[in-house]
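Why do we bother with a discrete structure alphabet at all? Because it lets us treat a fold like text: something you can write down, compare, and reason about line by line. To make this less abstract, here is a complete entry for undecaprenyl-diphosphate phosphatase. Read it the way you would read a sentence in a foreign language you are learning: slowly, and without expecting to understand everything at once.
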Amino acid sequence: MEQLNYLLFAWINASPASPQGLISFAIFAAKDLIAVIPILIVSLWFWGPRDQLPAQREVIAKTTIALLFTMVAAATISMLLPHERPFSIGVGHNYLAHVPDSSFPSNHGTAIFTFALAFLSWHRVWSGILLMIIAITIAWSRVFLGVHWPLDMVGGFLLGGVGCLFAQLLWNLFGYAIAAKLTRLYHFLFAFPIRKGWVQE
């Protein structure tokens, strides 16, 4: 597996001959595209057609559960099974400043693949496909820039699938209670903007 990791990394990683425009795009993708997660979470929870809001909020609740599970799992794996980043051992070319912590699984990859798989499973196919394209772009960019190995991203994808499965099982058992508590908390915390009509009830 390590040989495959090195081979794929050498194929994807940027070099001094890579176009500067492609490197700039990769930096944008690696650092900024992940913002789609909080933007969609906030947008789909606060706004939408009245008859679709309960379904939207269920998607957001399940996705958040999956994200919490996967990020805790990723942190645990990184702590128990540390794996050095390419630049930490002098492999390839690095074009993005990053602390030399454990690389596997990628936190960015885990988060965005969890999000994409969640929307494929619980929202709409087109939105899931769009998010999967964004996820693949982020995964590519972080390998291209030299801060991750390809298998770090594969690990994030697999962990995202496990996280979505966990969230669905938990929702099957306690979904009604979770939804009711979240709704009460939302109405309490956002009573003023709800009354003003800034966000939906």
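What the structure line is telling us, in plain words: The mean pLDDT is 93. The radius of gyration is 19 Å.
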